[in-house]
Design goal:
The chain has about 70 residues and is an all-beta fold. About 0% of the residues lie in helices and about 55% in strands. It contains no helices and five strands. A hairpin with a 5-residue loop joins strand 1 (about 1-10) and strand 2 (about 20-25). About 25% of the residues are buried.
Length: about 70
């Protein structure tokens, strides 16, 4: 399912951690395949991608959003 989400990039999780998008509506998404430009804590961004129900994650912070495109705000 394709989704576009606006929020703030965060580094979350235990161990090595993971990059996440804390959306403006309160949902947190784990970012899959986030490019280097998007991996900056505190940056506001709009991310478009696919919700991946077929992917398991150790972080368990929310749905996995595979990044297709993004715009830094």
């Amino acid at each position: 399912m394709s989704k576009t989400v606006t929020g703030t990039i965060e580094r979350q999780g235990f161990g090595p951690g993971t990059w996440a998008l804390a959306s403006d509506d309160g949902q947190t998404y784990e970012l899959k395949n986030a490019p280097a430009e998007l991996r900056q804590a505190g940056v506001k961004a709009t991310v478009t991608g696919e919700i991946r129900d077929d992917v398991m994650s150790l972080a368990m912070i929310g749905p996995v959003l595979e990044v297709r495109s993004f715009e830094l705000n």
